[in-house]
Amino acid sequence: MSLGSGIFLFVVGAILAFALDIQVSWIDLHLVGYILMAAGVVGIILGIVLITRRRQTTMTTRSGVDPVSGDQVSRRTVDRDDPLV
After folding, report:
1. Rounded-to-integer distance, Cα 2 and Cα 54, Å
2. Is the full-model pTM beyond 0.90?
3. What contacts 9, CB < 8 A, 6 or more positions away?
4. Contact at 8 Å (CB) between 44 and 3?
5. Fewer CB atoms < 10 Å away: N or C end of the chain?
6. From CA 78, how far away is CA 85, in angstroms rounded?
């Protein structure tokens, strides 16, 4: 669930819980609104955690020919910006 869908669920739940004054016999719209608001809060928290947890990796490969032996030499460098790794 992304951050935008969490916000959407929260807004729809708030509309159902607080703005509508409709009585339906087979469902309690206020309870559905509260459930959607809770799911929206969970979605917002998960979205924020996933945004801050994204990894950024930069890989650089350099290749060249060794002038003494004539062999091809390659060197790889990896830079990671993830503080938890």
Report:
1. 13
2. no
3. 36, 37, 39, 40, 43
4. yes
5. C
6. 13
Q: Rg of the chain over CA atoms, in angstroms?
A: 26
DSSP per-residue codes, 13-71: HHIIIII----BTTB-HHHHHHHHHHHHHHHHHHHHHHHHH---EEEEEEEEE-TTT--
* pLDDT digit string, tens, across residues 19-69: 988 888 899 999 999 999 999 999 999 989 888 876 666 667 777 777 778
Residue pair 9/36 in contact by the 8 Å Cβ criterion: yes
Q: Which two tokens stand for residue 69?
A: 């032996």
| Cβ atoms of 72 and 64 closer than 8 Å | yes
Environment class of 34 (CB within 10 Å of its CB; exposed 0-12, middle 13-18, buried 19+): middle
Q: Is 85 helix (H, G, I), strand (E, B) or coil?
A: coil
